[in-house]
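pipeline/complex-builder :: batch 7 item 3
reading input block
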Amino acid sequence: MPQAASVSVNSGPQSPLVEVSGLRKYFPVRGGLFGGVVNQVRAVEDVSFSIKRGETLGLVGESGCGKTTVGRLLLRLIEPSAGRVRFGGEDLATLSSSALRQMRQRMQIVFQDPYSSLNPRRTVGDAIGEPLFVHGRARGAELERRVTELLERVGLPGGYRSRYPHEFSGGQRQRVCIARALALSPELVVCDEAVSALDISIQAQILNLLRDLQDEYGLTYLFISHNLNVVRHIADRIAVMYLGKLVEEADAERLFESPQHPYTRALMSANPVPDPDVPLRPVCLQGELPSPLDPPAGCRFHTRCPSAFQPCSHIVPEARLISGPHTTEGHRVWCHLYDDAPNSD
Amino acid sequence: MSGAEPQATPLLSIRGLRVDFATDAGSVPAVRGVDLDIGISETVALVGESGCGKSVTAMSVMRLLTGRISAGSIRFGNTELQSLSEPEMRRIRGAQIGMVFQEPMTSLNPVLTIGKQIEEVLTLHQRLTSSAARAHAVELLKRVGIPSAERRASQYPHELSGGMKQRVMIAMAISCRPKLLIADEPTTALDVTIQAQIMDLLGSLQQELGMAVLLITHDLGVVAHFAERVAVMYAGKIVEQGAVRDIFKRAAHPYTRALLAALPDPLRTAARLEAIPGRVPLPRMLPAGCAFCARCKHVFEPCPGVLPELFPIAPGHSAACFLHDPRRAPSNVPCQ
């Protein structure tokens, strides 16, 4: 089996589980008399990163920056316009549909809204058991046993398997969604705003659960969120996106202590820390977020950047490596202020 | 002003407010006896998790409820709002009490230009001529930081971003210089950089107009930087209130402390968060005593059966917890 071979080659603890290079996604905008493509939403442009096994990469950015699209491209839920996603060393784009189906067992997703991601007319036991059934992993009494085990693993009584989603609170539903994502023992779980709809006390329970599951099963997470404090808590490394492009990537601690890109700095400065004695001095960004239909030339942030200078409006900045404390994995910045730093690629 | 203590003659005074919602399964209490004062030009934050009754309390002040106020009084200045007729209430709503909601996308009329919508408020409450109202509307849009206000005034809501729409909502809310602004999750739908701008705008308008603000939010980060006083709600009751530093630095109620400990804080990273076990009790299944007792670390014998009142901790700071009842509390109070 080809997958088995590649897994054994790439199963070292340091080898990346996910490698993304030059990823691009344009969504066509149709219109006009004949419904032709009149424009394109440039949702994701030239995004490259990798995630090691057992690591959590946080992906942050404001609404519309393309972070959810990156999550979906990673699982090949949507097809990229260009670029490559390698999972466990294999290029997802080249897989046949049956090989992709096999591969999908190794990657799962948990969505933001636990209300709309469960079928209201099926029991939560059915929801959790379905992936096991579809992939022929378990049947009958064995299926029931596995479902009970999964429910108990996420902190719900096994007897709840015959209940319907409306009988659960938001936090409990999110636990059910996590149990379903775990059913096939995946290696990668994409959490797309997985705790954003939850109240603080419940959010803490789910974040602790995700951390415990990672320790127990060696899970790799791509954790997509707009909440900087949550990402700081859960992620080992953080990548920041603005208008479809990465602007900075570093260790979580390093990024919070020493953000380099003007956009990251603005984002951090506007993030209110829950302590009245820590002053909030937001760097106010000028103007509005440009449209992804017609993103600015050069650095996409230059129209609002307080430090913009001559090259920013026409030259796309390349990734530069910044050195300093905590930069075990490299601190990458896409900004002309650091043009003297070494190129990272 | 210092903000630590409620003023002698508050602008808004809520006493013993109870609100019930009729459901198929009978009457469900959403607010169970809330007392709250807001002084002139004071900022009070009402915080709590979903379903705690914070928005229902605010809607009761505006009399925009679908539920029924079953008891209590709401005094605004010298007026008892409950006793007003609907036309009398309409003269207060919008003119003396302004309101900003969470969803700027759904709070604006999609088929009217934003200029028209602001003019409507002005002609209704201030009897301005249409050209004077137009000029004033443009003035207001400039005041809330909308660039090229003349052009924007003739645009429709869909042509504006979320942050711009929230600015328009604020322009409408302050158009008649209200004495009180109720802001219900005003930045929850917005990104952090926009949130910072909107909170900054609200702060400067408050200074300029001398208006009081009742801020309703679940975001403790926003509360820490914007409020003078804070009231924490849990299951339809205020469980603790005090000045902002009382709440964040000297929290007295176990729920407030648990809530603060459950927050991921970039300044103190730990491997695990202190989650609060269990969940908020359903409104139909509340215990006779403290609603938090099933999740509380410090529960002791009076908690499940007796409803705790707000016990004073310090001037302006009180908590509804028997740990602070001098008659009942165990001698070794575990909370300080």
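note: Chain B is about 30% helix and 25% strand.
queue -> next item
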